[in-house]
Design brief:
three-stranded mixed beta sheet; Flagellar M-ring protein; FliF_N_dom; flagellum; cell membrane; alpha+beta
């Protein structure tokens, strides 16, 4: 046995030594490579495919789910700094349902299901208000999360207390919202407006001005900024086009009733001021407008009275130190002196009016209306040519149209701008033959060139043709029927030989023969059955 083993060993050694190097490498590398391939294939074939069970979890939620998975003995993996949990694909759906049945993940938020699950008579009003407010915040955050670009939302609502007295004014509520948005997502203006409207309509007595919305980077999401961030030029041109189309339709309908819709064309152009002006006016007006007086609020009266002896004797005129030469001095007075002065001061209060006026940003500063009227008449001349409106008729139509358009211009333009506008310069009325299509021209020519008697003659001719055609068809039908009758062969009735009947008395055979003849005449079917039965017996 040992000799055989040694013999095989020597053969193997000899075989190995006689092999070249590349064969030695191939003999060693092939089994090793085969083992590696089998091992790697087995590894990936037996490895479980992991799929996300939950994404974007908070640390608290991830901890709750991890604890439950450990208790169930389910393998899992964590990704995204613990915010995403991966589980085997085979049991992912069932595991998701089981965790949901257990109320996981628990966010710690209270929704309206709390009231049905925790109804209690011992809850105080304050506790109820707090829980209700928390539930409202949770539901509002869930609504905002459904908007594209929002991962999650945190809502804080400040609701004022109800007033004690009926006469007290109801205070306004306020709301602060922080949105966790997707990276690089920009909200459209309609989305921002929808968020503000949604929050305002969800919470009672909450105006949109009391709502603050920011993202996770505390960047303010303003509705006014979003609205003004659109294309202002496009909006202005759209408004301008709507105004012009509205005016054009009104003028077109009005003039169509006068001259016909097919005989008039209208074009309207406007100059619109989109500047929004805000100004403050402080006015003072009298209370009594008739006398232009205010309301007296205080009256002060000062009375001065003096009584005394007569003055001293006057000197020589113009000789005093402070007197002008050659100017007569006052005459000498005699008797007691007296002085009386009454001074009255009245303070009036006037109406003080302060106005803060915000002008509309859309005001028509100028308007131009161009009207084209077909100068062709609807009736044609005897020679078939279209008639034109005379100069007098054109003048009458133009005056009527201008009168209507002047009223439209004066009422459509801004009041201040209307003072500097001459309506005659804003209106243009022209008369021009309208180009018509070939079919329309042919119809007009036919209508204008065919007299009434031609229509009558044509109708009579049409009736005559119909009668002739009917008679022709009827005559042909009669001829066809006659020809069919002639072609049919003549039918000659068969000759029946009736044997003479003897006057001899009826025998039994004769009686049977008569009965059979009678049966054959009255009931051929029964007679045939009888014959078949006799033949069968024979």
């Amino acid at each position: 046995m040992n000799q055989q083993i040694a013999k095989y060993k020597e053969k193997m050694a000899g075989f190995w030594q006689t092999r070249p190097a590349w064969q030695k490498a191939l003999l060693i590398g092939t089994p090793i490579l085969l083992i590696l391939i089998i091992g790697i294939t087995s590894f990936f074939a037996t490895k479980e495919t992991m799929v996300p069970l939950y994404k974007d979890l908070s640390a608290q939620e991830a901890g709750q789910i991890k604890k439950e998975l450990d208790a169930k003995g389910v393998s899992y993996e964590l990704e995204g700094n613990g915010t995403t949990i991966l589980v085997p694909d085979a049991g992912a759906e069932g595991l998701l349902v089981d965790l949901a049945a257990e109320g996981l993940p628990k966010t710690g938020s209270i929704d309206y299901s709390f009231f049905s699950n925790n109804a209690s008579w011992g809850m105080t009003d304050n506790e109820f208000d707090v829980i209700k407010l928390d539930a409202l915040q949770t539901e509002l955050a869930a609504l905002l999360t459904n908007i594209d670009g929002i991962k999650s939302a945190e809502v804080m609502i400040n609701k004022p207390t109800d007033p004690v007295f009926v006469t007290d004014e109801q205070e306004e509520a306020s709301a602060s919202i922080v949105l966790n948005t997707e990276t690089g997502y920009d909200f459209q203006p309609n989305q921002v407006e929808a968020m503000y409207r949604l929050v305002s309509k969800t919470i009672p007595n909450l105006p949109e001005d009391n709502i603050v919305i920011t993202n996770q980077d505390f960047e303010y999401i303003n509705m006014d900024t979003a609205q003004s961030g659109g294309d202002a030029y496009t909006n202005q041109m759209g408004i301008k086009q709507e105004i012009e189309q509205g005016l054009q339709q009104r003028v077109q309908q009005m003039l169509a009733a006068m001259v016909g819709a097919e005989n008039v064309r209208v074009s309207v152009t406007t100059a619109i001021n989109f500047d929004q002006e805000t100004r403050t006016e402080e006015l003072v007006e009298p209370v009594d407008e008739e006398n232009n007086e205010g309301l007296p609020v205080s009256v002060e009266t000062i009375t001065e009275t003096y009584e005394g002896e007569p003055g001293e004797e006057a000197g020589v005129a113009g000789t005093g130190e402070e007197e002008v030469p050659n100017v007569a001095a006052e005459e000498e007075t005699t008797g007691d002196g007296a002085y009386n002065n009454v001074k009255e001061s009245v303070n009036y209060e006037f109406n003080k009016i302060k106005k803060e006026i915000t002008e509309s940003p859309y005001s028509i500063q100028d308007i131009g209306i161009q009207v084209a009227v077909d100068s062709n008449k609807n009736t044609a001349a005897e020679n078939g040519e279209m008639q034109q409106l005379s100069a007098q008729e054109q003048t009458e139509v133009e005056e009527s149209i201008t009168s209507i358009l002047n009223s439209i211009v004066s009422t459509s333009v801004d009041a201040e701008a209307a003072q500097a506008i001459n309506p005659e310069n804003s209106i243009s009325v022209v008369f021009q033959p309208f180009a018509k299509s070939t079919s329309t021209q042919a119809d007009d020519a036919l209508k204008a060139g065919i007299p009434i008697w031609a229509y009558i003659a044509g109708g009579i001719l049409l009736v005559a043709v119909v009668v002739l055609v009917f008679m022709l068809i009827r005559s042909r039908r009669d001829r066809a029927e006659e020809s069919e009758m002639d072609d049919m062969p003549e039918i000659v009735p068969p000759t029946i030989n009736v044997e003479e009947i003897d006057d001899a008395p009826d025998t039994e055979a004769t009686m049977k023969q008569k009965q059979l003849e009678k049966l054959a005449q009255e009931s051929p079917e029964d007679f045939a059955k009888l014959l078949r039965s006799w033949m069968a017996e024979d």
